[in-house]
Specification:
961 residues; alpha/beta; six-stranded mixed β-sheet; five-stranded mixed β-sheet; 31 helices; 30 strands; 34% helix; elongated; RNA-directed DNA polymerase activity; RNA-directed DNA polymerase
Amino acid sequence: MFAEHLGKTMEVYIDDMLVKSLKKFEHITHLEQCFKILNEFGMKLNPAKCSFGVPSGEFLGYIVTERGIEANPNQINAFLTMPSPRNIKEVQRLTGRIAVLNRFISKSTDKCLPFYQILKGNKKFRWDDQCEAAFGQLKTYLTTPPILSKPESDEKLYLYISVSNHSVSGVLVREDRGEQKPIFYISKSLTSPETRYTMMEKLALAVVISARKLRPYFQSHPIEVLTSHPLRSILHGPSQSGRLAKWAIELSEYDIEYKSRTSAKAQVLADFLTELPLDDGIFVETDSTWKLHVDGSSSKQGSGIGIRLETPTKEIIEQSFRLMFPASNNEAEYEALLAGLRVALAIGVEKIIAYCDSQLIVNQFAGDYEAKAPRMEAYLLAVKKLAGKFKEFKLVRIPRGENTSADALAALAFTSDPELKRVIPVECISSRSISVEETENDNSLEDEHFETPKPSSGNESSSLVVTRSRIKSQDDELTPPLELPKRKPRRKSKDQEVPIKEPSQIEQSLPVDVKVQETIEDPDIPSEPEPRKFILKDNTSANDWRADWRVPIKNFILNGELPSNKWQARKLKIISAKYCIIKESLYKRGVSDPYLLCIFGPEIEIVTSEVHEGLCGSHSSGRAMAFKIKRLGYFWPTMISDCIDYAKRCKKCQMHAPLIHQPSEILSSISAPYPFMRWSMDIVGPMHRSTRGVQYLLVLTDYFSKWIKAEAYISIQDSVVKTFLWKHIICRYGVPYEIVTDNGPQFISNDFEDFCSAWGIKLSYSTPRYPQGNGQAEASNKTILTNLKKRLNARKGGWYDELQPVLWAYRTTPRRATGETPFSLVYGMEAVVPAELNVPGLRRSEAPLNEESNSKLLEDVLDTIDERRDQSLIRLQNYQQLTARYYDSKLKNRPLNVGDFVLRRVFDNTKEEGAGKLGINWEGPYQITEKIRNGVYRLQDLDGNPVQRPWNIINLKKFYC
């Protein structure tokens, strides 16, 4: 009823209606609109329950005024006048009255915690001093309850969050003329598992609970979460827990920003932020120094490193790495320290103390020991460069006994399966953090983590170690651009072999080691064509680096950059919740796989070509290839569609594709309105040579009556066909209008075409290699051969003697299509068969005795022959419709147009010599030059030479290039 006014001038809840106006002079107009709707629906109001023109009023249990939403005084008085509970029932009544006022009470769960503990389990009632104190504090608080404000449309709102050992709380506020006013207070007690969450997880939970409780506000307003903790980095971090990833996706629906908390601008908010003492779990930043324990270990089984990072709030981050290269104990210790520092930098640590039990490393860093070996000098330089990125850094040596945790993590790396999913993930570092070759030459490093590749056209190679860390500044270039293995180019011939290096294997684990190997250029060798371009969903080529889909996501995660458009920004936030940055590379969090490396442009071409047709490629289908790429650890948004397109355009896959048997065009039926108008003609043979030396049959079938005329010959040339038509068709049944035949040489010769043209006979040819185009002839051939085989025993040469009895049996048998025998449709009556001679019927015994009556009956039959033929024609058309309906039910449309490239089915005369079962199924490509009719096309090869005959679509397949 009031849909167009709800939220604007009216609020309705069941039978409670409120008409509201911001300006006094508008109120009469709004009331008139309400009364008009009430009159339309015949509704009446009770004057005793109506109030008009009031500045404030009660709605849904709250007092609504121009200042905002206030608590109902009756509800507050009911609580304030309540005595201290004396039993469980009264405690339940107390919590019920508090629940009504929850939205006005800051941190209501913490204030009511003593009451809730009384109601837990089957405890005996005990009202102690703590309960009485909490009861008194609540009464004091509710003597001056806060007034909740109403937000304006599209106004930015602010969320303050707080956590304790037993609850999470929040308050949603708006800013009005520099003053922050509360909109809603939220509080939730923690379950037993939730109390064991880390501080960061509790803070994230507070945001999630607030979003669920205040969903309408979060959906219609941009929200700023004000906190002194790096919540956004934690939610988008690579080492987050499963629940954090789930919460990040859930919160991505809303327009949420995370900002540092400033001073509160209202006393009620200051109370919210300072009510709980520090020992109750309020996280206040006192010391921002982090502690890092590292250790490396090397043995015959392998090498591993372990890091243990401790936050200022005593939270622990543990990580274990397996070294995929031989390393000494000292090298492993250095790798552990470098990995730990990279992780610390990735999560934004500024002050850190590193603890190590290696005397050599600590003293070399302090300058007490000299790094003589080139590797040690390179490692030392790398550590110093990383240490310089912190505001405060200190390296301390500790006894081995105080470093047991990191030592256990290092041992875990090379003693357990790195593929095993654990709480502490075991991953791999595939190459050294220093370049051995470079240190031997000039004892210097281009970068503290890896050798920075320089532009080169030679066959140089570079390596990259991707670690689980994130870089905050784009100026800190810790990793080069990602390059994947290049595919081996196809060889032109045995004499033209391109010398290449073996492509490196794509690793399934993260981090990955990526080797770049280039082919040796030779001016005498023809260059390969440009790699196929992928067309993305936004019609942008994947090789176009200007449209890198990863850039907006990385900019948002690293710098918080958003598009100016509101909805694009919201969409980007939702998408970015599923991604994280690891060593300046974008990774997507998978469901079945932990992290998927996001790739673009040439990287997509390299991965898809290697997986589809590389050394280990299986030319799999598009979807299978996409899932295989995902299992290898790669991702891009249009992966499935691009892989389907790539597999669809693969020439080898198209050449060896299965043959097509499913119809692609609707069935076109051919019929004739009267006998002997249209004939189908075909040759059967060669058959077993008969006793008279013949082995071929020339068969013609009338489309209307299904009458078959056939003769046997030793061989059949165009002259034989002309003689047969003249003697057995034209001279006996008249000149036909049309003859349908295939493309046999006897039927397409110039002499035969001239003969038909002289007699005014229309010649229609079916398409090559498509017997269904002359289906009537094929059906007749099948019937003749089937009956001949049933009449013959071991003497196969006697088929000629059985031909006429077979034809007679066919002509005197009713056909399903017409419901009549061919003989009766031609001559108007049924033929006398041998059965009537052996057992005389009425026609054989009585009719000859009365010739006059018999003649009269024959005349009546001949007079009604046209009616019978018309009925047969109707039955024939119904039969053809049923057949077409069944045929068309299996149809799969494959539209082809002029200009399209197609492949043609390979037949025995066109298959590869000596290929056997390994030969291709399709040849070509050819180009369509003309559409004769539906499903029939004229072709030409790539040189422009036309194919002699048109081809049916059942033998064609679209070629994608």
